[in-house]
Amino acid sequence: VSDRPSEFALIARLFAPLAVDPAALGLTDDVCLLKHQAGCDLLVTTDMLTEGVHFLAGDPPNLIAGKALRVNLSDLAAKGAKPVGYLLAIAVPRSREYAWLECFARGLSDDQERFGVSLLGGDTTATEGPLTLSVTALGHVPAGTMIRRSGARPGDGVYVSGTIGDAGAGLAVLQSRLGEALRGVATAALDVSDGLLADLGHIADVSKVRITVQADSIPRSDVLRRLWPDQDGIVRAATAGDDYEIAFTAASEGAAIEAGRKAGIAVTRIGWVGAGLGAVLVDSAGQEIPVKQPGFVHF
Ligand code: ADP
Ligand code: MG
Question: Which residue in 51, 52, 249, 266 has the most C-beta neighbors within 10 A?
Fold first, then answer.
């Protein structure tokens, strides 16, 4: 049996100190209470992480916490939103020690400070199964300015922040607040979670356009270039996922690059939007590179 305090002591000791926003009511009520902000739209997103799928049982708990938060914050960033706060639902294996949870809460605390968000509420249960957690994040945009996936138009350029293929968990893009700088610039955007090519395919689907990506223009880290130097390596990077960079389309190349410069993050043009359907990768001769699996799918 573990050395864990009761559910309520656990919430009071570990989670209440993270509920810094008055809207969280110190985690002493059934709900959190967010005042409606005039002139703003409220954006809400959930991402779930399961042990054995998104992280391994032995991974450092503070890093798991950071990932749980960041995968959600990158969804908000991709929509041009400023993050407000988050809710956390967690099912903890009965055998998990208290020290694990302490370290997990420390990871949340570090990222809360980094990204200016507060815990607002959640739920805590015990489980016989693997550790599972779900974060629901809330963000604001000025009314009507959310960047959709559906706005890409033929003639737009295709861009991506940072580098692709290193499973970076988007730290730089979140700290730079690139997403907010893309409001009014990006015609469509999303965060790269399944794989660059698969995710651009999502934009192509809902925008009803064809996206062509120039393989050798995909920005990759020096480490990755050395690890996977050939074209096969580019395909792997473009389909690996877990990047949490922002991929977007924009009508003005100048405005796209300037948004990156203002936010202090690299933005690279990697392709173009045309008429048709789907997202494809081409080599420098313009030949389509066959891709078996454009990204990760759970089932
Ligand atoms: P309920 O019985 O309605 O599920 P709980 O006793 O589970 O309420 O929760 C009490 C308070 O603690 C609520 O404000 C809830 O949002 C908060 N809470 C519970 N678990 C968590 C958690 N993992 N993270 C943040 N807040 C939590
Ligand atoms: Mg509960």
Answer: 249
